[in-house]
Amino acid sequence: MNEQYVHDDHAFEINKVAGGYQLVSRQEYEHFIRKMLSKSGRLALSSAALDSLAIIAYKQPIGRYEVEAIRGVDSSGVLKTLLNRNLIKIKGRDSGPGRPLLYQTTNKFLEHFGLNRLSDMPKLKEITELMEADPTLGEQIVVFEENEPDDTNIDSPGPEATAG
């Protein structure tokens, strides 16, 4: 089928990945696709935001202090950014001391990453196998840095924090 796609000058090809198949754009179109995606804002997340979002996605519901314990740095500014972009929302409060806010992902998170449900996220074992099969995979991830600092305080969420 790939030979036919090349012959017909299609912009995509089929790759065998993790025991299945994946329809992807051809390498020669990468520049145009990255340009288009960066304009749409789809990939405009800092590495700190992606780290925090991954932690929340896999451990939700989770409090800010737990995110910070995993990341090793203050994450309040990143969480504010993720709240403002409606990728996460406040689920409620923990029953522990101080009753900290708990965060979880939103439907916009699922849409942003092309997931139908949270169970569609890759398992750690799958990610490890992909990285072992292609060590350059991590180098292919594009991250656009944001201008927002990571240390903005979000102890009192605004109305946008509860939307979604």
UniProtKB/TrEMBL annotation:
The keyword Cell cycle applies. GO terms for biological process: cell division; chromosome separation. InterPro entries: ScpB_csome_segregation (IPR005234), WH-like_DNA-bd_sf (IPR036388), WH_DNA-bd_sf (IPR036390). Signal peptide: none annotated. Keywords: Cell cycle, Cell division, Chromosome partition, Cytoplasm. The keyword Transcription does not apply. NCBIfam families: SMC-Scp complex subunit ScpB. This is SMC-Scp complex subunit ScpB. It comes from marine metagenome.
